[in-house]
Amino acid sequence: MTTSPYTLRATNVKKAFFYPKKISILNGINLEVPKSTSVAIIGRSGEGKSTLLQILGTLDEPTEGTLEISGISVNSRNKCTIRNQEIGFIFQSFHLLDDYTALENVLMPAYIARKNISKGSEAYQLGLKLLDYVGLSDRAHHHTKLLSGGEKQRVAIARALCNNPNLLLADEPSGNLDAATAQMIHNLLLQYVKENNKSLILVTHDQNLANRCDQVYTLKSGQLVY
To answer: N or C terminus of the chain: which is more exposed, having fewer CB within 10 Å?
Structure first.
């Protein structure tokens, strides 16, 4: 990989929708995220925070602008590889497979990356280690539909870490959780970033969570304000 000091660099990123009429959502976003840094993006509903996060995660394409992740310029040919290898996603609604166990959910990114996930494999052992990290080693073989909301979000965090990504993207990671459980989730994410030299970009309405991050931006009128 590269020796770039930045996990992510977004330059003049714009996003517009043209049907039924042109609507500009993002109007020239510039963002540099150093390694081992947590970034919070706040703002009113409808400002385009989730759209921006999807673009930064290569799930959507900008109308204009460039994106670089771990020193690699993202394009249509390499974005899937970069997404699988460099990015871990955490969503408010978990997006777990309810009829699969916690461990099977955690191993899904490794499965998609065509790694060996059979019992005893390196990926399998890592999955168990990650569940232990989030305090769920005793739930490894439980179907996720049997877990509480907080437990599901911790499974989702473990899943996001499965391929050892350099960049974590979280969209309202504690929005559906009670205050105590939310605090646990925040601690897990921020601790992991610092201990493992990773980077985190999260979208949140929680000002307390935002204030715990290294950098806080407000998305307003399609621009990031520091």
So the answer is: C
